[in-house]
């Protein structure tokens, strides 16, 4: 459970830096309860219902903010699963959201979609590595990971794959732009593509980045079928 305390420290600092003193103080209390009584009761009580910690979003509405928010979500999820001995795998690790026009079939994946996908794919391995180190707080240096050689390679390969599939890539920072850029109709809706992308622990290169971009149902629709 050593990693549990490390995660609490990271969560506290992320909340403090985001200006959320209410939740930062509660997590700081959880650290105290763990240090003095090895109690996780307070932390567990933060989940479930409206206004719970799992409803929080942190970070500004820009690529760095998206990475910070997802780091927070991944750490929170990891701490929860650690306490209940559950897997940290996610249904949507291999899916990227975009949008398609129901009128003219114009398809788009934008900057927001890409930057939302990348940290969910890249950060889990980084978290695993840093939680084993004394300098685990360096996980907060999110821009180092966002702009790393590995991330930039994956980013460029994804954009290349997107364009090869005749899907438009734009620098929009809105998840879904409802107005179609092609036919000008307000007919854009969410669409998901399945991404086959395996990352090695070694220095990445073109050969160890098998990538396939295919249309796919959202994971929640799969559960219903």
How many structural units, i.e. domains? Answer: 2
Rg estimate, integer Å: 19 Å
Strand order, main sheet: write it out. Answer: 3-2-1-4-5
**Tally of separate helices:** 8
Class based on secondary structure composition and strand pairing:
alpha+beta
- Secondary-structure element string: HHHHEEHHHEEEH
Strand tally: 5
Q: Tell me the quaternary state.
A: single chain
Poorly predicted runs are 199-225
Fraction of residues in β-strands: 5-15%
Q: What best-fitting shape do the alpha-carbon axes yield?
A: elongated
Helix % is 40-55%
- Calculate the mean pLDDT score and round it: 83
Main beta sheet strand tally, sense and closure: 5 strands, mixed
Distance between the termini: 38 Å
Notes on the protein architecture:
The chain is an alpha+beta fold and 225 residues long. The protein folds into two domains: 1-87; 90-225, no CATH class. The chain has eight helices and five strands, in the order ααααββαααβββα. It has helices at 2-18, 21-37, 41-44, 63-84, 111-130, 142-146, 149-164, 219-224; strands at 95-101, 107-110, 168-170, 188-197, 211-216. A five-stranded mixed sheet has the order 3-2-1-4-5. Helix 1 (2-18) runs antiparallel to helix 2 (21-37), helix 1 (2-18) packs antiparallel against helix 4 (63-84) and helix 4 (63-84) crosses helix 5 (111-130). The protein starts with a helix and ends with a helix.
What's the SSE blueprint?
Blueprint lengths: L1 H17 L2 H17 L3 H4 L18 H22 L10 E7 L5 E4 H20 L11 H5 L2 H16 L3 E3 L17 E10 L13 E6 L2 H6 L1
Q: TL;DR of this structure?
A:
The chain has eight helices and five strands.
